[in-house]
Amino acid sequence: MMDYLTVKEAGEKWGIGSRMVTLYCARGRIEGALKKGNLWLIPKDAPKPQDTRRNPSKR
Question: What CA–CA distance (Å, rounded) separates 53 from 39?
Answer without folding.
Answer: 25
